[in-house]
Amino acid sequence: MIYFVEDDNSIRELVLYTLNNAGYEAKGFEKPSLFWEALKTEVPALILLDIMLPEEDGLQILKKLRSMSQTKKVPIMMLTAKGTEYDKVIGLDYGADDYMPKPFGMMELIARVRALLRRADVVDTERDYSIGNLYLSPSKHIVKADGEEVTLTLKEFEMLTLLVENQGIVFTRDQLLTKIWGYAFDGESRTVDVHIRSLRQKLGSCGKLIETVRGIGYKIGEAKNEK
Questions:
Q1: Could you tell me which residues come within 8 angstroms of residue 153 by beta carbon, excluding any fewer than 6 positions away?
Q2: What's 68-94 look like in SS3?
Q3: DSSP string, 28-40
Q4: Sheet holding 26-29, edge to edge
Q5: 3 state DSSP class of 174
Q6: Which pLDDT belongs to residue 173?
Q7: Residue 40 phi/psi, 5° resolution?
Q8: What's the CA gap between 124 and 72, in Å, rounded?
């Protein structure tokens, strides 16, 4: 997922259209407040960020993102009409990975997006994940549910990591056994079900994120806003 914060409707729609046509899933936000709200439920693979925005300056948003554990390693590209050397230096000092002044060509934008995503893939194991109130850091081996750290067994942690890193993808019990335990499901073992049940209990309200797909297996679903 790519997030794009841009208050100009025409630019935002054109960039989103271009990204979608290039095979990327992307969401646009005209206001920083909408972007921050979306960030609570999903951490994107890449953020495209304008500088001149209502509510909050793009450079301040960049600074905040780099101070947050969930987004400090997410690639961020600044897209802005401000093309002075000063603004570019400030953006890079604040932690921007790339900088494109407007107007920019769509072909060059896609090329730079691909380059940033390829670079991020190299350190993908260091990425942190936030889905609703569930936080997972594979590299630090940390899981937090509703702000509280949760202690998991090694297999529970590996299973949760696999599901979170592949959010929305359904894994059969056979696949989970093969990937986590290294042997094929024989049709009788309840190992996966037992570990899923334990995970749900330990995660409390966040356990609802682990969904049972009847007759198939399990997946991590979307966080649901509860009134």
A1: 198
A2: CCCCCCCCEEEEECCCCHHHHHHHHHC
A3: EESSHHHHHHHHT
A4: 26-29, 2-5, 46-49, 76-80, 98-101
A5: helix
A6: 87
A7: -70, -25
A8: 13
On the question of pLDDT at 214 being above 80, the answer is: yes
Burial bucket for residue 38 (CB in 10 Å: 0-12, 13-18, 19+) = middle
Closest CA to 46 of 65, 31, 60: 65
pLDDT digits (tens, 9 = 90+) for 142-187: 999 999 999 988 788 889 999 998 999 999 988 888 787 765 444 4
CA dihedral 59, 60, 61, 65 (to 10 degrees): 100
Q: What's the pTM? A: 0.54
Is residue 181 packed enough to be buried (19+ CB in 10 Å), middle (13-18) or exposed (0-12)?
A: middle
What is the DSSP secondary-structure string of 125-149? Answer: GG--EEETTEEEETTTTEEEETTEE
Residue 205 is encoded by which pair of tokens?
């309200």
Tell me the C-alpha distance between 139 and 150, whole Å: 15
